[in-house]
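In practice, a research group might receive sequence data for several interacting partners and want a quick structural hypothesis before committing to experiments. The following worked case mirrors that situation: the sequences arrive first, and a predicted assembly follows.
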Amino acid sequence: MPVEKEFRPKIVAFCCNWCSYAGADLAGSSRLGYPADVKIIRVPCSCRVNPMFILRAFEKGADGVILCGCHPGDCHYSTGNYYARRRMTLLFSLLDYLGVEEGRTRVEWVSAAEGVKFSTVMNEFVDKIRSLGENVRLGDLRCKN
Amino acid sequence: MKYSYYPGCTLRTKAKELDTYARKSAEALGFTLEEVENWQCCGGVYPLGTDEVATKLSSVRALRDAKEKGQALVTLCSACHHVLKRVNDDMKNVPKVRDAANLYMGEEEPYMGETEVLHFLEVLRDKIGFEELAKKVVNPLTGKKIGAYYGCLLLRPGQILGFDDPENPTIIEDFIRAIGAEPVSYAMRNECCGGYISLRDGEKAQNMCDAIMENAAGFGAEMLLTACPLCMYNLNKSDKLPVYYFTELLAEALGVKEAE
Amino acid sequence: MSKHDAEMIREISGVNPLKCMKCGKCSATCPAYDEMDIKPHQFVSYVLRGDIEALADSKSLWKCLSCFACIERCPRNVEPAKLIDAARQAVIRQRGNEADLSPDEIPALLDEKTPQQLLVSAFRRYRR
Amino acid sequence: MQRIGVFVCHCGSNIAATVDVKRVVETVKKEQGVVHAEDYPYMCSEAGQALIAAAIKEKNLGGIVVCSCSPRMHEATFRKAAERAGLNPYMVEIANIREHCSWIHKDMEEATEKAVILARAAIAKVHLNSHLQPGESLVTKRALVIGGGIAGIQTALDIAEAGYEVDIVEKTPSIGGRMSQLDKTFPTLDCSACILTPKMVDAAAHEKINLYTYSEVESVSGFVGNFSVDIRKKARFVDMNKCTGCGLCQEKCPSKKAKSEFNRGLNTRSAIYTPFAQAIPNVPVIDTESCVKMKTGKCGLCEKVCQAGAIDYSQKDEIITEKYGAIVVATGFDTINLDQYGEYAYNESPDVITSLELERVMNAAGPTKGHLERLSDGKAPKEIVFIQCVGSRCDDHRGKPYCSKICCMYTAKHAMLIRDKYPDVNVTVFYIDVRTPGKNFDEFYRRAVEEYGVNYIKGQVGKVVPQPDGSLLVQGSDLLDGKQIKMRADMVVLATAIEPEAGVRKIATMLTASIDTNNFLTEAHPKLRPVESPTAGVFLSGVCQGPKDIPETVSQAGAAAVKVIGLLAKDKLLTNPCTAESDTLLCNGCSVCQNVCPYGAIGYEDKEVNDHGIRETRRVAVVNSALCQGCGACTVACPSGAMDLKGFSNRQILAEVDAICR
Amino acid sequence: MQELVKRAKELLADGTVTRVLGWKKGDLAYNPEPAFFENEEALSEFVYDSFCGANLSKYMIEASKKEGKTLVFLKPCDTYSFNQLLKEHRVLREKAYIVGVGCAGKISAEKMKEAGISGILEVEGADALNPSETLKVKTLYGDKEVSYKDVMLERCHVCKGKDHMIYDEIIGESRDTLDGDRMEKVREIEAMSPEEKFAFFQSELSRCIRCNACRNVCPACSCRKCVFDSTKFDSAQKANVDSFEEKMFHVIRAFHVAGRCTDCGECSRVCPQNIPLHLFNRKLISDMNEFYGEYQAGADAETKGPLTAFTQDDIEPSEARERG
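A structural hypothesis for the assembly, expressed as tokens:
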């Protein structure tokens, strides 16, 4: 019987510089592990994340994309995460509408002090993506066949 | 207003008066207790083990029946109250128990903890209102100094039962005020009466109840009120103070005690 | 009983004994403290050590009143009563009828006022 | 195509133990544009930096990637190193292969693979980096201190001594804070007021310090060096300039039933009041809740008796707007609410009190004039029980998970003072651990035991049962003796957990300073930048950052002041060059970006453009880079993609995405 | 129609406007096209009938750059687009003289084809304000009849109303044509399983030939340079047909116009492949209305759109999903 290779998802995590990236640093210095499948991209604020970045990640083969920012009310730039929240709410809803499996996208608010939360969230998210398997739909949703 | 009613084993036998007075009072207050058909004993104690399912099924059935009737489920006995609320919480929040129980019962529509479980006292407080109750009192127990005895099962664990502040409860005191008497507060009102230890070690239970009564009497209580048949049994081992079911005094205050 | 049982007790109880900070509030609170040979705050150590044999033989299992005071007051959410109950369960499951209460001895323990609730609870705790 | 150098740090074994750094070097060498790659045990060391500089010069590198710890640690270090070697500092990218890789993974294969991918993403990004030049902004040479306790006072004094203007905003009628409520202080038993009041006077008298008491911060805008703050001066109904502080109004005021905040509600005060005798300013305020005149329109006694004519019932709240270069948060703490701890009978028995209440009881200006007596019946207690860790170290729904840090020491102080003054009183302390790290601290605690005979029992108390005879039955554990103790006490003192002052979350939000789940403000780095908030220009002083005692608070207050002075000493600040920028040719002038900009940094101009031969005047967005803080909200709102963020451009981020998903 | 021409001539004559933006006859009976008329003579080509569905608002961007005022004829639904463009400073109010024209619902040759009528030569009864209930159509294959309603554009069945949101004067009365629920299809798709949804959209989108007709007609897609044509979002592989934008074109486009799209329906009207593109926009509109309160882009020229506003207690993406 052929041994099926373990599915290692590609996961992109956009983290705001002030809270979540620092939360990820804290998870690191506290040695709170999560799977290596998660790769973090630092952005100044969750509101810097263009839906196009997320779609691009999927198009290039990502299996899951998570956006982490400061808790609502605690944005370093006061209001950035509020805009990000609306944008992502609508984007995720649209992706669900297109039949992309729910759970491939996620938003979490993680403060600089929440190393534990960062690690927990990433572990959960990777589990979820692993259970969903490889992402094919977003790559296949094309204009031309 | 109609409620599903879960009397429990003891109210059928040794604690009939707890039940009878409750039904009479309910009628006087304008609500009806509809006994759940074919209810089974709740087991008396809530099984703490996370892998226990079978022992919770009788409660789940009663809860499900109440849900089907679209009613809240009311109990009088502290133990039933404790078990039903905790099982309900499991069905709502613990997927492992919920899935196993639903699988076992094989119902089409799974039970997800939708039923509201209420102790009779909560009905008085939250549905009727103690102010309303006070208005219906025809025979106020003026001058009586009464100590509320809560024991364990009404209150703990506070977060799941949501009955009252587990360390500093006031619901029975408010009830006592509503029926015209004077509540006597004392710190040991939420200490254990000895529970089932009295089966093996009556003396131990008696010592515990003595301490409770001494504390209550010291603050001027002339009698104690309880909602639990087991507490009643244990407290009666001590002869310092008379003990009544809260429903008895309720029926008396509402003037329906003797009515048949 | 063995290490394996320690695992089982952690599993059944859902308690993480490592959360305990040994403050002793459970023992301070317990109404059955004086009757217990292993005190409430010590349960966690037995489970951590895997010394379930001693725990199983302890009379403390049958002295706990399930009053939940230690659960309510534990500042670390360790909830020793859950460990006790799990140990009791483990013993009952393994020893079956040898458990603490036999039906034969019951009639002698009753009086006319004994409420059903007492019997039912005692049976659940001591036997089931 | 940039010529790129990659530098992989071992960080001793921190990285090298989990990441095969040699393999990272070999793999990234194959990446497009990488002309140099090497590893080194400590890249941040002088030798490591020299290595980078040498490579930049020798290989004529146009961009570098350092694979090391978090950019939050050493990005600045490596940028400076690059700059010294003649490379624009913004041509440096960091691949975080420590916090985000070696420290969280165990498998070397996996970690190495991830490190390579993170390096590739950084390489892909640095290809698109551009030479950025920071701008400059002016610094307003004035500081704001929020909170007038010992932390705020000390910070303000230190800043003022350096010659800068400081304003203190204090929400209560007087500065002084919690320390003014204390009787004695550990570990030397100084009288708290004796050492605090001179500082209060100094602050009030300092020509560079301006006090806004009975005032609160209403809103904050701006950024480091250029904050603009609205301060609400609550109506005192007493004219600060006319009042002589004679106190007659307080004496004559007929409404004396309001609970004294200063005495923790243990006694009452008049409706017009100064919180305590040494209050600064010594100008009373009228509490509208209890003032008869305010409630009914009748009375007006204070106005009649005031010879200075200082009473003014028509006073209104006033909003003052001030500009500051730096802001220090020194909002302090309070004790937690004990409603949930019914087992200790705090709400039931007046003889169960908190330690802070005991401070007032012990104080000569307190409700019992300094006599140790039971608040229920005024009798002298014979048996006092102290309970430690009430609400501290609680990982449940009731308390706080942290150690409040000061309780062990102040309890030893209380026990000692009581035994000293009332040798016939027995003192028992129930403790979980006695924590005494600090100079002369353990000695102090041992004195309580050895010299004063305080009875320390290891074990928590389960319940306090008020008895009919008025005594308290304390049921606790003696874990060392293996006993359950039931003892009678006349008083019980609860070492109640402390928590940040209630309003701090609101203030943190206004300042966009980060705050943790326990409402303590987060420091920029837990070890290396403990008095700075991650928000530039905002500093932390005292308990708002974490539990601490007076000496620690004062040290931190001084440290915060030094940071402020360092900032105010500069005439100009270099601004973050990673600001938004609009491409004139792509801009529609649609104003969407302006709508989402939190800084009002985007304006519009009619510009003459030459769009591939079409010459026209267009309305286009223009970013004021002095105001822009670089959040990027506008870049996503912009429909045409005209708005982009320097340093985090669309193409840069997409390049990272591509590299990771490759 | 004559009334419109008369008024246009008056306004040209008295110098109020320097040109007229309207529709002119096409080469076939059913394809009038947007046109500028620079003088009275040119107006002989002017037409306004039931086939004049085209929204002229977007042409006002160009017109705003020209000397003098432009008279523009706008149907009620077109005025939303005009307002939105006004809000975004793309058109200048002072450069426009808006004559709000009445509308009785518009029809299209595409719809006729769907109803089985092709080779159209002449259509009788397609009056802009007072069309016949039954249209008489001369075709290459003989005379046919068809109910007006049956060939009306989808957007007219879910008409936003008879009121013009902005105008200088109004000529002609409009008619109620609303007889459908514009979110019906959206709800239907929402109720599908993820597999069904995916299959649906994949089959629709796979017909796309990237002709850009949707983009060109869309009043919200008025960027000087579309992001799909700029290098801002692409690091390397332009011109690769399988690139990112190609796959995600419609998703990204829908997101770009979210909060700005007035649901004018032009995208679906002009799509040569009949892809129901409005279903993307309507999903976003439906979500925004549900999550952030009712909002109609272009109802005025001031209110901030839902994506440039927020409240502190907005729904979380996860909650929205649970509801969804």
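Before designing any experiment, note the following. Chain E has two domains: 1-180, 181-324. Confidence is low (pLDDT under 50) at residues 235-241 of chain E.
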